[in-house]
Amino acid sequence: MADLTNAQIAAAFDELPAGARILIVDDSSPDGTGDIADRLADVHAGVSVLHRPVKQGLGPAYVAGLRRALDDGADLIVQMDADFSHDPADVPRLIAATAGADLVLGSRYVAGGEVGEWGRTRRAISRGGSTYARRWLGLEIRDLTGGFKCFRREVLEAIDLASLSALGYAFQIETTYRAVKAGFRVVEVPIFFHDRRVGESKMSRSIVAEAAWRLPKMRLCGNRG
After folding, report:
1. Residue 97 lies in a domain
2. 126-151 residues labelled b (16+ CB within 10 A) or e (exposed)
3. Tens digits of per-residue pLDDT, 59-91?
4. Does residue 1 form part of some domain?
5. Do residues 66 and 79 make contact, with C-beta atoms less than 8 angstroms apart?
6. Do residues 198 and 81 lie in contact, with contact meaning Cβ atoms separated by under 8 Å?
7. Whether this model's pTM surpasses 0.85
8. What is the pLDDT of residues 27-58, one digit of tens each?
9. 79 has which bridge partners?
10. Which of these, 41, 32, 38, 22, lies nearest to 2 by C-alpha position?
């Protein structure tokens, strides 16, 4: 986020639906993201910032942001990255899809979806992770590891955010799996995923390992209801 120009940020705001509110979650990022977010909140009335003093992982940051959105009364909550990997221009399409769904996933791996700028190894890890999760959990969803989602409020209230403990990308899988098991309708909308221009991916061996051992546990818990 720290390298974005004012023009790019303004264009992103223009793509959002009227009345939309933006919550930026910052885990004391060392690249100055929190300061930039505070300046945006000073300029735009619809922007607020949730500062978390200690990095606790991707999952806890998502939970904190989703809980704040619920507490603020949101009926539809869009979860997305703030580095333009997820295109703000796609937000209206995800929101529109909730007319026939409870959870909408911005999907890289359905017809019309695509990933740009990734090398073969990163593509293989991402696709392989979704395939592994799909087979373990018995789901037809193509992109289980993506983080671009639009939830109806009822979904987040039903899946028990307080019990989610995954630190990495397993969080994305578990929220979707719980929504399916709770009987909510999940649909995928194709997106073009842009690789970040600066910074490093949060993908690591420990995150991959966490997802690998959590999936059998999710399946077991799901079978128990």
Report:
1. yes
2. bbebbebbbebbebebbbbbbbbbbb
3. 899 999 999 999 999 999 999 998 889 998 999
4. no
5. yes
6. no
7. yes
8. 888 888 889 899 989 988 889 999 998 777 78
9. 149
10. 32
